[in-house]
What we know:
Blueprint: H1 10-14, E1 23-26, H2 36-45, E2 50-53, H3 65-69, E3 73-78, H4 85-92, E4 97-100, H5 103-115, E5 119-122, E6 136-139, E7 142-148, E8 152-162, E9 168-169, H6 178-184, E10 185-195, E11 215-218
Parallel strand pairs: 1-2, 1-8, 2-3, 3-4, 8-10, 10-11
Antiparallel strand pairs: 5-7, 6-7, 8-9
Helix pairs in contact: 5-6
Amino acid sequence: xxxxxxVSDAGAALAGVLSDGMTIMSGGFGLSGNxxxxxxxxxxxxxxxxxxxxxxxxADGFGLWTLLNNGQIRKMISSYIGENRLFAELYLAxxxxxxxxxxxxxxxxxxxxGAGIPAFYTKTGVGTVVAEGKPVETFEGQDYVRxxxxxxDLAIVKAWKGDPEGNxxxxxxxxxxxxxxxxxxxITIAEVEELVPxxxxxxxxxxxxxxxxxxxxxxxxxxxxxxxxxxxxxxxEQG
Length: 239
């Protein structure tokens, strides 16, 4: 059964899964840990009217930005708009719906979705527009706003290593939203940098157990772009 999870590429992974108007979770933080090939597969498919749940919407010319530019996204549920000028332009023009979340709240809503917890309470956002229309209750003398879980028809994630059972390991900051999203999709598809044989992964190092992953494939290459490269001048040694 496990080997049936492995497919050749993004197109094969997405086959029979996509439909207009669906909700998709896409892993990544900035451009770190983005499922590059699966996003490209969504672009090629032409699927539209999407609701995308992701920390941000890529950067100019890369990542989820390509779907935005192609008119495939109807709504974003995010925590950061960043330097995405297209995102700002479409939103201000009324062509893109936006549900903006505090970043920790977004992460917890996704985690709650994967854990089967319909709602939770948090102090974050109390007394602000974030709390508008949401129940507020008092616990131990403090007000807390109720936030609902987030779940998706499809979760697309990117990992460092994976095995035929779908067990995944993420590398450093590319771990970000990917593990939580992998648990909160009705269907979860993973792309990995390296596909290893069954039993090659140390079980104690696995971040996403294979039970959550329906399909996976090894990506041929990754750009791993950096949004902002900050360096300091090299100090010449004094002889």
